[in-house]
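FAQ: What does a multi-protein file look like?

Like this. Sequence, then tokens, then the next protein.
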Amino acid sequence: MNDMTDISEGQEEAVYRIGDLAEEFGVTLRTLRFYEDKGLLKPTRAGVTRLFTKRDRARLKLILLGKRVGFSLTEVKRMIDLYDPHGKNDAQLKVALSKGEAQMRVLEEQRASINTAIEELERTISVVRDMLKEAE
């Protein structure tokens, strides 16, 4: 699935080709190129081949999680860009917590609306069934 490729000064780091990540995460090549265009992923190139690092893979995982819970790509990028590999990342964690709590409230409101809609539809279906039985 991935190759081990030399990265500067003899260090070895796992490198993934675009097809590897697309297959692993169930996304299209076009999606990965789109994320690259938006600055969310920053692969290196060997000729025309995009080479993604473990860091890119981790970022992709966060992008997809963010999208799945309803964050915009702009919000995801802002949170990811706050990451400091040499720091405590308090700012990133605080922003992630704040945005996560706000999104949780949005999702809970949506769930309540969906539950109400389901209950109303169940009642309507029941009434329609009863009407059909009476008509028979």
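And here is the next protein:
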Amino acid sequence: MKAITISIVVAVILIGGAFLLTNGRNDLGQTVSANNVSIVDGKQIIEITARGGYQPRKSSAKAGIPTVIRFVTKGTFDCSSSVRIPSMNISRVLPQSGITDIDIGDGKLGTLQGSCGMGMYPFEIEFQG
């Protein structure tokens, strides 16, 4: 009986933890919608979290609008703290924790690909008309 009670308590803790981790908030406690793209003061902002890779790995945005890619880090120590976008000759080292905006001008129709400094963690942004 004691083993069953312990199993139930562990299950409740695990389920509660999973709920807390997936309640629609990012690592900074900010509410996250299904779409990581917003337009603020005429600029399109694409927010990507860098830690153990990039989330989301794929983003969809509108082409032809001034665009900023906003990288959010929180305790990032891995290679995703170094961002490369080869087609635009962009290479940046992100802070361990904070926000880094990279202005990429007007997003061009097509797919923009980037990765961590080692090429292990890719991300892409599809610019649509």
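Q: Is there any per-entry metadata?
A: Some entries carry free-text notes. For the entry above: The longest strand covers residues 98-106.
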